[in-house]
Amino acid sequence: MGIAVYLIPATPVYVRAALMPVHIYSGLFIFTSVIATALMGITEKLIFGLKNPAYKDTPPEAVLVNVLGLLIAAFGGLVLWIATRPSWKRPREEIAQTVSNNSTSPEDIKLGTAMTTRSDQESSLETRRRNGKA
């Protein structure tokens, strides 16, 4: 679906916008499935691989794999948290500019994606005035 909708330039923007939530959350579902598979795989290998001492006796290998499992789970949770937060998403104006901008030169890309707010421009002007460069 992603290749057909997002890589073919003839796809209308409204179709891309309508399918974006499905695209995002199906990707997050696949990522979550990969994390769960990794956790189950290392746990299964450890449980059935340790015979002497047994897993229930918590040898150093068991502690290492449990810490690794916690780190994998924390990484997965952090990625899911970042991907679902609106503050981490690209601004809508930048998306509209990059979709409507069909040029491929680096200068045009820099100009199309550069976004300065009025407060940023005013603060840089004030800084130049203080330094005597305005």
UniProtKB/TrEMBL annotation:
This protein's GO CC annotations: apical plasma membrane
Annotated membrane topology: Multi-pass membrane protein
Positions of transmembrane segments: 22-42, 62-83
The entry's protein name is Plasma membrane ascorbate-dependent reductase CYBRD1
Ranges of Polar residues compositional bias? 97-106
From the Swiss-Prot or TrEMBL record, what is one GO molecular function term? transmembrane ascorbate ferrireductase activity
Listed under catalytic activity are:
monodehydro-L-ascorbate radical(out) + L-ascorbate(in) = monodehydro-L-ascorbate radical(in) + L-ascorbate(out); Fe(3+)(out) + L-ascorbate(in) = monodehydro-L-ascorbate radical(in) + Fe(2+)(out) + H(+); Cu(2+)(out) + L-ascorbate(in) = Cu(+)(out) + monodehydro-L-ascorbate radical(in) + H(+)
Location of the region described as Disordered in the Swiss-Prot/TrEMBL record: 95-134
Enzyme class, UniProt record, top EC level: translocase
Keywords per UniProt:
Cell membrane, Electron transport, Heme, Iron, Membrane, Metal-binding, Oxidoreductase, Translocase, Transmembrane, Transmembrane helix, Transport
Which source organism does the UniProt entry give?
A: Cirrhinus mrigala
